[in-house]
Specification:
By secondary structure, the protein is an alpha+beta fold. It is built from five helices and eight strands; from the N terminus they run αβββαβαββαββα. Helix 3 packs across helix 5 (189-214).
């Protein structure tokens, strides 16, 4: 299906949800200095062909304007005529959609996710054991243990893409980019938001628990 075949109503629904999520995250201080990006898939999906809305590059995400988002295809090319430029990290979203078929991907920067990405860098993962919020990922094992992957950060963003491909875990709907931020995803905006909130709680827990152990 071409982008032109996706209904106007579907595109407008995605943009409405985007606006609500962006305002929520901005109120939490998750977009410092225009950082972070959001995307939501629209229309049918196959790994070889899909479209998604993504935040435009360099915009102040604490404000809502008609130029906040644009639509791109599976190659990151603009799906319709616009002067807007997609986020510099669009290639990361493309790869995660291709591998997971997710419906939404949210990428934010916070102090705790940056700190734990460095604290646990040698292990290449943040291990979380037995914390209740693991259930947010539909992992219901008693005393569950998860490892949240950490990938290296490169100024040349496309170099991060194969690192994501290597570590993506089907059970864990997210990953950390070292000293950069977290990417979380889900089947839709509600689920991706739930996963992101759970990750942020777990990162703060891991950071504070590591400090307590050193006392």
């Amino acid at each position: 299906m071409s982008f032109a075949d996706i209904t106007l109503e579907e595109k407008q629904r995605v943009l409405r949800e985007f606006t609500e999520v962006k305002a929520d995250f901005a109120s939490r201080g998750w977009f410092p200095g225009t950082s972070g990006n959001l995307s939501m898939r629209v229309g049918p999906f196959s790994p070889e062909s899909f479209h998604f809305a993504v935040t435009a590059s360099g915009k102040d995400k604490t404000k809502s304007t008609s130029e906040d988002f644009l639509f791109v295809d599976q190659d990151g090319n603009r799906s319709e005529t616009t002067n807007l430029k997609p986020s510099a990290e669009t290639s990361l979203h493309r790869e995660i959609y291709r591998l997971t078929g997710a419906g939404a991907i949210f990428h934010i920067h916070s102090v705790h996710n940056n700190l734990v990405s460095e604290m646990f860098w040698e292990q290449r993962a943040v291990r979380i054991e037995g914390v209740e919020l693991i259930k947010a990922f539909d992992i219901w094992d008693e005393d569950a243990v998860i490892d949240i992957p950490i990938v290296p950060n490169y100024a040349d963003v496309p170099r991060i893409v194969p690192e994501i491909t290597k570590v993506l875990d089907a059970r864990i709907p997210g990953l950390l980019i070292r000293k950069h931020g977290v990417c979380a995803w889900g089947k839709d905006a509600f689920e991706a938001k739930r996963h992101l909130e759970a990750f942020e709680f777990l990162f703060e827990y891991a950071y504070k628990w590591a400090l307590l152990q050193r006392m």
